[in-house]
Specification:
The structure is a homodimer of 178-residue chains. With 178 residues, chain A is mainly α. Chain A folds into two domains: 1-46, Arc Repressor Mutant, subunit A (Orthogonal Bundle), CATH 1.10.10; 53-176, Tetracycline Repressor, domain 2. In chain A, 69% of the residues lie in helices and 0% in strands. The first copy, chain A, contains nine helices and no strands. Chain A is elongated, with a radius of gyration of 18 Å. The mean pLDDT of chain A is 95. Chain A binds chain B through residues 104-105, 107, 133, 136-138, 140-141, 143-149, 151-152, 155-160, 162-164, 166-167, 170-171, 174-175, 177, and chain B through 104-105, 107, 133, 136-138, 140-141, 143-149, 151-152, 155-160, 162-164, 166-167, 170-171, 174-175, 177. Chain A binds a DNA duplex (30 and 30 nucleotides) through helix 3.
Chain lengths: 178, 178
DNA sequence: GGCGCAAGGCTAATCCAATTAGCCAACCCC
DNA sequence: GGGGTTGGCTAATTGGATTAGCCTTGCGCC
């Protein structure tokens, strides 16, 4: 029996394929099958399903963070907030299954905290320039709107034909209005 | 062995208790235990876990719908939208476990469609007076903001001490601004 | 007042995913 | 080319969902 060349990172890759393939929630058996290995072998690389899910979440937060970083680099204030919102939504639209797999509350989980904080930090930078509580309020509004819209869209929740881009633009305009 | 007096509705009651008690996702065994019955007995009343979850979701949407209805009754335009948003958030804060158990996308599921449409209808009434696409855009913004804020708050996602009520009020103001 | 029968419990059994135990080959380093 | 570690595997355990089939309860009806 030849080695399969697995590793935690490789398993995360496989899990992302599995997610993208749309088969609902992750399972050890499905991932093992896709990796060409028997289920127990998975445990040589990760502690169990919970840890693998966390690693997958961390990877997705990382990817999202990089895209948000790139989109907001060099921008400030309203421009940064706009870019943040658009990049956030774009990610969810491009990878709906991955977005759905993201734990809502990464902070407090050892494997997710770092990546989650990075995303939050980028959002915080987008409301820079506001003072004290104003920044907090703006940050929360940004998160709520971005997450709410992304969730509904990733779930296929906008049934009507009316242009969703336009709806999003309206929402963004309201949020970043002076 | 005396009868336990179960019924689909009674099982939904039990499931809600179980949810409120915080034990994560619903399970047939947990519900059976709480109902004082063995797991197989559950199947005399509902088809399986999936159906029970759907019935629970429908009940929660119903309750939410009633509260939204009561909160927006007699109001129009911005007043209705404000009332809708505040009642929506209040529900999620009062019953975070129930809010988390709500399927994001009720439409298209036979058992959830009716209750889901009712909630959507109330939101639609809150943006009445806008014409055509404007109403759609406003409705989507309302849903996204309400759901996003409720989700984050129900997940414990707002860590800082800064007043969350104030943050929500700011967001509402932005959304209903003329 | 008792009979017939559906409804609603139960036990036993099945299936399937997660996980653990313990074996053994493959690979790496010397 | 031997020794230890790594990473597969098979077999076994556990626990939840679900199904099959039995048996009593309780109600309607004679």
């Amino acid at each position: 029996m030849p080695r399969a060349g697995l590793s935690p990172a490789a398993l995360v890759d496989v899990a992302l394929e599995e997610l993208d393939a749309g088969g609902g929630p992750l399972s050890i058996s499905a991932i093992a099958a896709r990796a060409g290995v028997k289920p127990p072998s998975i445990y040589k690389h990760v502690a169990g399903l919970a840890e693998l899910e966390a690693l997958v979440g961390a990877r997705i937060y990382d990817d999202l963070g990089h895209e948000l970083e790139a989109a907001t680099a060099g921008l400030e204030r309203a421009d940064a907030a706009r870019a943040f919102l658009h990049a956030y939504r774009a990610f969810a639209v491009r990878h709906p299954e991955r977005y759905r797999a993201l734990p809502v509350h990464p902070l407090g989980h050892p494997l997710l905290e770092a990546a989650g904080e990075r995303v939050l930090g980028i959002a915080a930078r987008a409301v820079d320039g506001l003072s004290g509580d104003d920044a907090i309020h703006a940050l929360r509004a940004l998160r709520a709107a971005a997450h709410g819209f992304a969730t509904l869209e990733a779930a296929g929740g906008f049934g009507l034909a009316t242009d969703v881009d336009a709806s999003f633009d309206r929402l963004v305009d309201r949020l970043v209005a002076p």
